[in-house]
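=== Given protein ===
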Amino acid sequence: EIEKLGFTYRWLKFKDETRSYIKQNCLRALELDDTQRPSLVASCLSYIICVELPRDMWPESMNILFEYLKNQTSSEITRISVLEIIGSIFHEIGVKKINELHSIRF
């Protein structure tokens, strides 16, 4: 728990432009990740979204992830990574809380 708080504190200390730059690069890397092992990019995005979503700092993040799932050109590895991200977010934040925050229905 202390490690999560430290990550949250450090992440929120970054300027908005820096956080945006990192998020965009993580999303680009997600598309390029063709490894068969659990994705480090997926873990990174999961942590970022778990910090930002409850604070309404990246409300479109879930929709971005769903677009990867719906996009026919997304690779199987990308889709698996996205499902890992969504699973992590649901585990950390909870489906009910996500529904309350962003009117997303699952």
Remarks:
- Helices lie at 2-13, 16-32, 40-52, 61-70, 76-93, 95-102.
- The chain has a mean pLDDT of 88.
- The radius of gyration is 13 Å.
- The chain is about 75% helix and 0% strand.
